[in-house]
Structures are given as structure tokens and as C-alpha cells.
Specification:
483 residues; alpha/beta; Rossmann fold; Nucleotidyltransferase, domain 5; 2 domains; eight-stranded mixed β-sheet; elongated
Length: 483
Amino acid sequence: MTSSNETSQFSPSLMNYAEVVKALHQDWTPHDGQIEAGKALFNADIRSIFVQCGRKWGKTELAIYILWRWAQLNPGRGCYYVAPQLKQAREIVWADPRIKTFGPRSWLLDGSDGINNTEMRLKFKNGSFIKIDGSDNYDSHRGTRPGILVYEEYKDHRREFREAMRPNLSVYNAPEIFIGTPPEDVDLNDRTNEYVMTAVEHMNNPKKMYKKAPTWENQHIPQWWLDEEKIRLTSRGEEHIWLREYGAEFVKGGASKIFPMLKREMIRKHADIMGELQRDLKKLEWYIIADPAAATVFGVLFMAINPYSRHVYFLDEIYEGDQHEMTVQKIGRRIASKRHELCQWADWRKIYDEAATWWMSEMLDHFDEYWEPSQKAQNKKEVGIGLLKDIMLAEKCTFSDRCKDLFWELDNYRKDKWGKIPKKHDHLIDDVRYGLGAAGYHTLNEDEPMDPEKNPMWRGARIEDDFPELFNEEDRQYKGWEP
């Protein structure tokens, strides 16, 4: 307890400071790394802070805390939270109610005046406000008078936003807080990257703060989880991701090859594979997957999956770049010939890129053949690529020596200079993703084989269901498809 005489020695502003801090820490306790950044701003009065942090470090919570505390302690100030895009900002902090409920509701104006969902703005009774925005909205901020700026995920920000805001900072000597994970495949000598340039600016200026903040500074993240994640990424040949995304380090190189775990030992002679499959023919699921094209490359992949062992066999391919050979009639007859040779009586399931609606129509017209759309819109590309990596690491795939172009695509599949997955030289890779998605192959768990009874889309629509007059049960061939 504190006596009345002891209390009187504190100024009203100091008492208000203590009350604000106590209220904000009522339901939130910062970890040591967050405390270090907060002290630099509130205690040392450093006006420009750069926190290069790992994932799950707690950057959003720190940003919200800073904004609430600054708004309440500095009446009449505009406090801005800026994400790379306005839409992203709405999803990160506004749709999630954290920012609206982080501090006492009594500090805000009553009703909708205090929480304006249209403007994404919190208005305080002392005249301050917190505004949520995106760097893509830079044109609207020329002439704005900010009291503080917090940039989250700064590596993806538009440079124009900071350029528009910098002349306005002098009005209130407003602090800038930069928070986010480092970008891919860059180093400190890169003078073209805004994130790197800003980081170096803070490293070399004693009046500014640069802090590298790895994920493990956050004691709320279990060490066992971090250990497992490091092992998982390292085993996939993705140590660079661990260093960057969790260690908050600049990593130069090593990030471009998407399938570093691909090995030539995975290739086997076609005759040996087919001989091995003879004993499991009735167990296997058979897939033909097409990525139709009229001008680039027409890719078709023949694949078999053992639903019990989860092993995937890439058996054959068509990789046609000659436009004169890309007609439906020519490609269709080549498909028929290959499937007849591979396993003529198998119940082949046929999948095609749903964007090429003309393919299904023309196959029906010329061959009376029904193909299923891939439903690729429901299966994210990154998820499919991650699954294929796991399959390779678990040694659950085998390539026939006929699949030279598929192996070439995988071996040369690399991210671009911005760290993005390119849309080129991936025709057969897309076929793999469509096939795995159609098969319901989402896990390596061998205890739960793919069960037709549990998956109503297991077989999809079959031509014998829709066109029974075209199907010959004796030799399991479709009329008009004989090679």
C-alpha cells in the first residue's frame, strides 16, 4: 500500500503514465525481446527502430501495444499501423478483434464513434486515434500528420508509402517502427532492396535501433516445437528457410531450388518397374493427367498409386511442344496407345486442368471420352509442392526412365529473384499436383489407406456410367479408342 503523503510526490503525468502501463499489461505480458524494443521507444526515446524478427516472435502484439500506449499517453496524435496492403491489414488486425480490445474500452469514444469499422479507426477520448492502413494506399497520405508509424512485414511494403510520409514526420518528431521477417535470397550488399537498405540504415546509425529477433526469444513457443521444425526443414534441404524465417537472418543463395531432395536414384528402368507392379496390379490406382496447351507445351502424365503403401509411380509422359502435334486427335491417340501398353484393362481415372474446358468437350466429340476437371482452385500450389517434397523425402516415389521431362522440370524448378514460384516449365509438375489432389493423397499416413467408401469422389464420373453403350466389359476397352 502507498500512503497519501507518498502518493502526492508523484506528478499527475507520472501517475497517468503508471496507470496506462498497468492497464495495458493487465492481460498481456511481453517477453524479453519485446521489452527490449519497447524500452528503446518509451524509455530511451529512440525515434527509429528496426526489428528483424522470426515467425511467431510476436510482432503484431508488439505493434498493437505500441500504438495503444502511444495514443493514450500522447493526446491528439494520429497513430498508424501499416501493412503491405490495405486488404491484408484488415485481415491481420482488424477482422481479428485484438486491436479493438487490447486496451480499456473506456479510453475510446462511445459506440461507433470509438470503433469505426468503415475507416478501420479507433478514436480515443483524448483526441488521438489508431488508423489501420496499407502501403498500397500511399497517395492518400500526402499531407498526413502522423504521431507514430508502425510498419509490419516491411519486406513487402511499397516504397512510395514511406516516401510520402517522411516529410510529414517532422511535425511531431514521430517515431517509425519497422517490423518483419527478412526477404529471401538477399544480403547486406543489396542496395536495390528497400528492406535491406532500411536495415543497414539502422545498423549504422547510433541514434537508431536495429534488433535481430529470432523466434526463440518468445518463451511462449515450445522448444520441442522449434526443434522439430528445424529438423523438418533441414531434412527437406530447406535450412535456409529455418535461418531466415525463424533465425531472422539474411540468407544469400540456397533458396532458389524448390526440390533439393530430388535424387537420380529415384529413376529406375521402365521394364523393372512394370515387372514389380505385376503382383499389385489389382491394388493400384491408375491416373492419366493432362495439362492441355495450344501454344506452349502439352503435358500428359501417366501415374499409378498404391493406396496401401502410399507409393507413387510415375510411369510415362507426353511432352509435346510442336503445335502441329497438339491437336486433340493426335494427343488422344498417343494417350490411348500408352495406356493400352501400360495396363490395358486398368480402370484409368482421367484428370485435366479445369481451365482448359475445350479439352473435355473435344475429347467427348472425338473419342466419346469423359475427363474430370482437376479442381485445382481448391488445392493451393504451395500445398501440393510441399506434399511432393514430403513424398520424396519419405522415398515414396519412383520415376520410370521414360519420365525424362518430368524429372527435368523438377530438377530445374527454381524460385525467381523475388522468391516466388514461377509459372513456367511446370506442365508435368502441375499434372503431379492434379493427380495427387484427385487421389485424395493428402498425407503419408500408411494406417489410413485411401478408401473408396469414405471418399465419394474416389472414382469420379466414369464413361461406363454415363455412356454404357460405349463400354465393352469383356476386354475393358472403349470403342473408338483402340490404338
